[in-house]
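debug: dumping io for the single-chain case to check the tokenizer round-trip. Nothing else runs in this session.
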Amino acid sequence: MDDIANILKKSAFKKPDEIEIVKSYILEKYSKKVSVSVRQEAMIISSGSASFINDLRLNAKMLAENCNLKDKKIIFRIN
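debug: decoded output
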């Protein structure tokens, strides 16, 4: 019988496509790296720069349209 560590090693967990879309969009447009996590009803975008996060907040509608995130709430966090 396999223990849980062996089962998890064999599993091929994949990041949701939304994460890569948002990361690449922000990297391309702003030349900044962010961390992105997805929850059931929200997407959380985090960065260490408060001014950058505020800039993203101001452009949240454009971000949602360009990354096709109309059904998710976007939450911005400062690390």
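debug: round-trip ok. The first strand starts at residue 35 and ends at 38.
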